[in-house]
Amino acid sequence: METKEFLIYLLVMAGSTYLIRAIPFAAIRKKIKNTFINSFLYYIPYTVLAAMTFPSALYATGNIISASVGLAAAILVSLKNKNLTLVAVTACVAVFLTELLLQLL
Amino acid sequence: MNSIANTYFRGVKAGIPIGLGYLSVSFSFGIMAVSMGFHLWQAVLISMTTLTSAGQLSGIHTMMFPAQYAEMLISQMTINVRYSFMSIALSQKTDQKFKGIWRLLLGFFMTDEIFAVASTEKNVTRSFFLGLSTTPYFGWALGTLLGALLGNILPTMLMNALCIAIYAMFVAIIVPQTKEEKPLLLIVGISILLSSAFTYLPYLKEVSAGLAISICAIAAAVFGAVFFPKKQDEEDA
Q: Do B191 and A51 touch (CB under 8 A)?
């Protein structure tokens, strides 16, 4: 691919991604009073993250078993502890150990 | 001044897990881009200007074909439309000084994870938001660079383990909140059910991942807003 074509593509990709983020952010200045809209906006981050995580996360590692163990570990730890780093590290270790175990079997 | 620095660093601290997660995710993006024939500088430049996972992944695939600019625009819009909802949601939680040009500048950093952590704040200030965005931004760029440089060197098992990090972080954002609000469990359950349908069912699985996520998230959130509306004062509490 020529550099010029790459740069046009990049402009379209980065430009549209930027505008779709920044324009609504800058344009909405008032507090929204509508309960429906507020509730919808409150739930959106959780539903986005849930849809992104399941089932994609099951295929994120080498195999579905290690991924399931990693996710189970993440759910268990996050029930007790809100620390994002701790949960992430525990899940990684769980996946690593599971894959190690699977190789030994 | 001192308190601005304090808030900034509080944001930086909150952003560290996101940055670590991004490091591993963008690492795989770097590997993929180079293996598809992109130069190292191109991979890093994409990450530094676009800062999104699903969009970039779809974008480099589109770039494999000559002059598909309209296709690029349409796919990016559908994949990224969720950011508009996040921006509108966060616009309701910013403090008084966080407006106008600041929103145009800092809106660039509105990713799923930065948004999710920012929205746990009662009042989002500019310095907190900038602090929160700092580590993820550089983590995303650095991970891409490292992936492009040494993707083939790290052992596969280590790479596999790192790939779960970003999802574990999502889990850690959702799960503690469902303990406090039972309806939320049902609402995210619906979102998961729909996204499973888009993954496994015929016809539905043809829908692009980005669009599918938007549909699932919007449908589940509408369900939540209809059956479990949040009272205004409850939300401010």
A: yes
Q: Establish if A48 belongs to a structural domain.
A: no
Same structural domain, A22 and A58: no
Question: What are the CB-based long-range contacts (under 8 Å, 24+) for B114-122?
Answer: B114/B15, B114/B18, B115/A45, B115/B83, B115/B86, B115/B89, B115/B90, B116/A45, B116/A49, B116/B170, B116/B173, B117/A84, B117/B14, B117/B15, B117/B18, B117/B173, B118/B90, B118/B93, B119/A45, B119/B89, B119/B90, B119/B93, B121/B93, B122/B93
b/e map of B135-171 (b: 16 or more CB within 10 Å)?
bbbebbbbbbbbbbbebeeeeebebbbbbbbbbbbbb
- For residue A43, the chain B residue with the least C-alpha distance is B221
Which domain does A11 fall in, by range?
1-30
Contact B76 A57 (CB under 8 A): no
CB pairs under 8 A between A and B: 305
User: B152-202 pLDDT, tens per residue?
Assistant: 677 778 877 877 877 888 898 899 999 999 999 999 999 999 999 999 999
Identify whether the C-beta of residue B142 lies closer than 8 Å to the C-beta of residue B115. Answer: no
* pLDDT single digits (tens) A62-94: 799 999 999 999 999 999 987 777 898 899 999
Least CA distance to B58: which residue of chain A?
A13
Q: Give B9→chain A minimum CA distance, Å.
A: 17
Confirm whether A93 is domain-assigned.
yes
- The domain tally of chain A equals 2
Cα dihedral angle (B129, B132, B138, B144), rounded to 10 degrees?
-110
Q: Tell me which residue of A1, A55, A51, A102 sits closest to B61, measured CA to CA.
A: A1
Are residues A105 and A58 part of one domain?
Answer: yes
Residues A58 and A101 in one domain: yes
**Does B68 score more than 70 pLDDT?**
yes
Please judge whether B169 and A100 are an interchain contact, meaning their C-beta atoms are less than 8 angstroms apart. Answer: no
* A91 lies in some domain: yes
In a domain, A39, yes or no: no
